[in-house]
Amino acid sequence: MLSRTAADLYWMSRYLERAENLARMLEVSYSLSLMPQAGRGEGRTELAMALLSTGTLDDYHERHGDLNVERMLHFFALDEHNPGSIYSCLRAARTNAHAVRGRITADMWENINATWLEMRNLASQGLGRYGISRFCEWVKERSHLFRGATSGTIMRNDAYCFIRLGTFIERADNTLRLLDARYEMFGEESEEVSDDSARGYYQWSALLRALSSFEAYTETYRHSPAARQVCELLLLRADVPRSLHACVEELDQILAGLPGTTGRRAQRLAAELNARLRYTGIDEVLGAGLHGWLTEFIDQVRELGQLVHESYLEVV
């Protein structure tokens, strides 16, 4: 496969996954900011977590000043000048899909093209008419439909592998950043909040819902969400689809199955990260300091993405 084709497939899936992740984070942050427990300025704190996790806090303040609910929702959802908005992600995904129209199936192309056309229509109407919750549900639904079309129609060849590579690298990075943003926002206070307090319950429940892991948590643990158990579930449980371990395990298997020797460095790093997560306990993570551990792993996932780019996606 040509490097340019692989890159387009890889980034198509990364942008689609990023759009879905933004919708999940935005919906939960907005809902949490409206709850009574978000009084005394904490509502704005919840909204700022979305900016922190995406690294766009400074950009937002430069363009819009103080936090404002309507401006922030537009910034994340429909702002065509924000490269990290859902609008921009879906536009980029459609552009990449168009470039590899001959390597994806008709069902995949029709789904992503229809998503972009509807996105343009929604942008012209504005969120005020559509509603943020309805909009976020629509984004998640379109992403699910695309993954279903991909899984059900495309051959299990190199194209499929690069689509999945983009999905799981983006998903692993998102899980780490959401956890790290929660820590950065509340610091040690997030670990000191009583497990039985309403504030602690809503904080950790919101994070679990953003990663579609609340049901997995209630099935695995018998008490209210608490920092230790949430971190264990989202970092180390390989049976939770959006956990870090599940994503890295998928990346390890995908890279190991790619032919040739050009990707050995990426394959080795993925295998090392998978082994590290398999044999790490939550006590070790928390003992080393959650923020430092997350920051280190964010850098390693970024390094893995760079090695994938150098090994497979650069035009030579």
Briefly say what this structure is:
By secondary structure, this protein is mostly helical.
Model description:
The protein has 17 helices and no strands. It has helices spanning 3-33, 42-54, 57-64, 69-77, 86-99, 106-125, 127-130, 132-153, 158-186, 189-192, 198-210, 214-220, 227-236, 244-257, 264-278, 282-288, 290-313. Helix 1 (3-33) packs antiparallel against helix 8 (132-153) and helix 9 (158-186) packs antiparallel against helix 17 (290-313). It is mainly alpha-helical and 316 residues long. It folds into two domains: 1-154, no CATH class; 155-316, Four Helix Bundle (Hemerythrin (Met), subunit A). Helices cover 77% and strands 0% of the residues.
